[in-house]
Amino acid sequence: MSLLQVQEISKAFGGIRALDACSISIEQGSITGLIGPNGSGKTTLFNVITGYERADTGQIRFGDHIITNASPDKVFRLGIGRTFQLTRIFPRLTVLENMHVAVQRHDLKGLLSRWNATHEQQRALELLAFVNLTALKNMPAGNLSYGQRKLLEFALILIAEPRVILLDEPAGGVNPAMISYLTDRIRILNERGVTFLVVEHNMEFVMELCDRVIVMHRGTKIAEGSPAEVSANPTVLEAYLGD
Amino acid sequence: MPLRASAWPYVNITIRLGSCSSYAGKEDVSIVGIIIEAIITGILTGGVYALMASGLTLVFGVMDIINVGQGAIVVLGAYLSYVLEQQLHIDLFVGLLITMPLMFGLGLLIEWLLIRPIKRDRTMLSILITFGVALIIEGILNIVFSADYVQLHAWYVTASFPVGGFYLSYIYVFGFLLAVLLLGGLYLLLYRTQFGLSLRASMQNRAAAELIGIDVERVSAITFGIGIALAAAGGMVFGATTTFNSGSAYDLISRLLAIIIFGGMSSLRGALIASVGMLVIEDVTSVIWSPVWASTVFFVLLVIILLIRPQGLFGQLEGRKQ
Amino acid sequence: MSNSKLFQGTGLLLLLAIAVVFPLLFPNPAVTTIAVFTILFAAAATGWNIFSGYTGYIALGHAAYFGIGAYALAIMCQDWHIPGGYLPFLLVPIAGLIAAVVAIPLGGIALRVRRHTFVVITIAIFFILQLLAYNLRDLTNGSTGMGLPIPTDWSGDFFNTPFYYVALIVLLLAIAISWWVRNSKYGLGLLAIRDDEDRALGLGVHVEVSKLTAFVISAFIVGMVGAIWAYFVESIYPPVAFDALFDVAVTLMAFLGGVGTIAGPILGALLLEPTQQYFTLQFGENYYLVIYGAMFLIVILLLPRGIIPTLTERWTRLQAIRSQRQEAALSLSASEQVHIGKRLIAPEAEQASPEEEQAREEGINL
User: Cβ of C207 and A73 within 8 Å?
Assistant: First the structure.
């Protein structure tokens, strides 16, 4: 059974059908790429899955839970993390403080304790080391460069140990050295059991990293398969060129 | 903190209602008659409030700022009309030909000096800045005119004519006609001129408007000026129908804000409907229940709309930022 | 400890030490009266800051809770026939609690909307409460106002002293709460809400509850301030209990000193309240409206973050420049980025150099 299943999700903004009976399914432990021409609904799909937008119809299942139209915090707590196209971090907090925001705390005692309690601090520092931002841990996140922000945002959601991570254009606007660094980090996490769904326009990145690729066009899935299969698929080429 | 001399003007409400009609000796006053009267007054006053509120809505729509100084501006407009009438014996409506351009200029000045410099956090900081401007205006008015209540005078303020079972003061009708005229002019400006098109585009999407070559800064400045000028006109009618002093600004702004939230923050249609609607309800409550509670009703309505429909009647629900 | 915290911490301790002995050094009642008001404002500003400073939702109607606290104390003293003296002070926390309890539904309604509409709602609620104070005559005695018990056995010179120390206790409490919130997980959540509320929500922060709790806490503190104030001035009327200018003063103080910092509101109160009292004495009431308004504008336009953060930033930058001069070869802007870039490509390479660490440590805790 798949880990994350989107069934017949539709979403319209006024007259525009951003998602049209879209169905995709993500297997546990996979790295799936989600591609498609601009306007095909990829980011909207992410938004609907993570609760930032409401779906008009359809259902989303994550493990044993139905998460259709759940609020973003519930989705996050169930184990789905996500990054944004335009990285969203907390600019006035330091890098380290940013890391601690995502740590789960439900009990009153946890809330009342110092924000950088020992065991969480350790984990935060570990993750910062993982993305090589340790040196900048006390810097206001707003001062980070674009690439550094992407790494921070990535590390942020890792601290909650999500089972699925949705990455929205992680390679967008980043230099090649960084891209290969990211690919490397994603692979390591994947080996530890994290499932990935990656929206990207950078084809090299997708082909290199993903074991499966789903192609979207006009709000619905038009093809899926291995990177090689998809790149040879005439429907896919038509979607990109024809529009 | 010392006791403020210009305290609560809720007294104004009763005076306003009182001065608009008299029963000329009728003993048997039907409740329906009173209610109809209240509705009519409500509509007429609502039109004037719509005038003042539309300035707020326009400014918010184009510039994303909330001018909490609008109440003070209205009172300033009222005082200006007062000075013109008292010192130069210029008729109130004629005086608008002077006060409105003057206030328009003031609006341009405020926008250029105080609002344009803000680059980040515009909405939040604009609230604080216009608050500061309101304080300064109120303070200056207090110094110049003292805290004594005044009212604008003209033949049509005191004279009234019979309508149905009661007497209606002319100023209410004239004021309403003024509001209709100005709002109509605003409509023409918005929908029949090039400038209006630029304004509406800026309201819809500021960044996109800039990209297609609209000088959004200029549009913003002029819009702000228009908002202030409209408030000045509203101020004249306000001053003619209510006794006021510098402290009246608080009551006014709280009502205007309640109106635009109720109607939906950037909807002109909402501002109009909310103005008339809320004023009618207030006036009817005043006669059915008590004038003292009428103002509370105003705000209670606001709370109710927030519970049921936080974006107001015609506002847009702010989606989660993705 | 970061620069800013050290700076604020020592400053505060110094001030508090002075504050404790102040009435003994300056027993003149005129002076201590101003001191009492200043401390009360400092406490109110700190309370306001716990909500508005940390979450970024500017509440302009907190005078509502001041008024509730004031009337709560007045009504309790009247109904329970409390005589003047030390007893009413024991009721002050209860008055604060009453304000806090009222704040729960009011805050709940107000927080349903986004930031700028929120400001307006708080103003509207404030006006409703003021109206209620006027109209619920049976409860509040309407515009005639209510009196509070007068401690007749306290002689003229001594009178201010208990008020002073009680106010100081409330201020200390406010500072303690503010400090604790700032350093807790909960407080981090609030700051995250301030920066990007939806992102915070998406990262698991309990946004709604957090905001409301901060709101209620700040109402509690401001309510206590209102109660002490009412007792101090011996009577309470609707326009005084619900005074829009109180909000202006509190907001201005917090902005002037530094919104979101712990010592900022207190610094603001220290600067503003004595100044305002002085101005009123010299020039009369009308001018201070203009001056307040002008000050408001100046602070917002020129010092939008307030004194403490601006000073801290300047100081840190000075440190950074100093270390930059010491290490002339290490230009911080260009080569630092090359350094980071290198480390990204070859992560197993260098450690961060100590100079970089120091330079990076801005430690601006807003």
Answer: yes
